[in-house]
Amino acid sequence: MTLSASQNRAGLALMAPAAMLAVIFLLLPLLAIFVLAFTDYQLGDRTLHFIGFDNFRELADEPIFWTSLGNTLLYSAVVVPGSVTLGLVSALLIDARTSLRSFYRTVFFLPVMASLLAMAVVWEFMLHPSFGIVNTALKAIGLAPHNWLKDGDIALYVLAVIGIWQSFGFNMVLFMAGLSAIPRDLYDAAEIDGAPNAWARFSLITWPLLAPVTVFVSITAMIRSFQVFDTVHALTQGGPSKSTEVLLYTIYAEGFEFFRSGRAAAITVVFIALVVAVSLMRFVSFKKNGKPA
After folding, report:
1. Residue 48 resides in a domain
2. In a domain, 2, yes or no
3. Using CA of residue 136, residue 142, residue 144, residue 149, what is the dihedral sign?
């Protein structure tokens, strides 16, 4: 069916407000970041000078940048498999039970809806070296307490555990959506064909049919893990000795503590490139599975 000129104009008129908002709040800020990345601008200055790729060359020789990039990748390497696995297990357990299903879904999804900054304060009290519930429990079973957030060897892993706790509920909901799309007739057929137990039905039916969902959930979890900032800012401020400093916190420190806006913009460009690269993985995975990206 061919649309008339008036219908085309009406469609463009309806799209115009959303397009204008996208330009103002998305495209223009991105353009400003890319421009600032090639300048020596400092917050509050009235002038700026274009310095080419100097900011990026300085980053290449900056140990703190490589430390924050490594910490971000390590955090993601712990959070992604942990949150995806826990989300899948939770979805399978809830899907297998008919009673209290809504209750469990609500409880597991609560950390996603809660303010992570507020929850970080709760975790700070729980991990307190003197009166925190974690150390109190360790003392009760005869183990020595630990200063979890001040030990550079484990502080990042502690933040990763908090990240898993906060994000697995979101992954659970995505997996439950995938499970609901699997025809129940397949399980009945597998049982008739002699599938001996639940594990056999999972490996033969559930896991293969959940593969596209698993790829989507994994890539989404990876992008979300790159965006960690709240817990770092609230609990460790990048310490001790930069052991928990991640890319977003480095951007914040460069831009709003040292006022080096040009360098902060350069790190932001690297961060955007990292997220875009992971997003392209999602696009490619959808193409391979014959689904629109």
Report:
1. no
2. no
3. negative
Report CA-CA distances (Å) from 266 to 27, 33, 152, 247, 250: 17, 8, 27, 11, 11
- The domain in which residue 119 lies consists of 55-288
Measured CA to CA, the distance from residue 264 to residue 257 in angstroms comes to: 11
Collapsing DSSP to helix, strand or coil, 242 comes out as coil
Domain-embedded: residue 20 = no
Give residue 292's pLDDT.
43
Q: Tell me the pLDDT tens digit for each residue of 161-191.
A: 999 999 999 999 999 989 888 888 887 777 7
Q: Is 44 left (phi over 0), alpha (psi -120 to 50) or beta?
A: left
pLDDT at site 111: 84
Local structure of residue 182 (DSSP, 8 states): S
Q: Take residue 200 and report the two structure tokens written for it.
A: 């056999």
Please tell me the total count of domains within the chain: 1
Using DSSP's 3-state secondary structure scheme, residue 148 falls into coil
User: Cα dihedral sign for 194, 200, 202, 203?
Assistant: negative
Q: How far apart are CA 158 and CA 148, in angstroms?
A: 7
pTM beyond 0.90: no
Instruction: Flag whether 205 is in a domain.
Output: yes
Q: How far apart are CA 159 and CA 1, in angstroms?
A: 55
Q: Is 62 helix (H, G, I), strand (E, B) or coil?
A: coil
The CATH number linked to 111 is: 1.10.3720.10
What tokens does 114 get? 């809660």
Q: Half-sphere exposure of residue 86, counting CA atoms within 13 Å on the CB side? A: 18
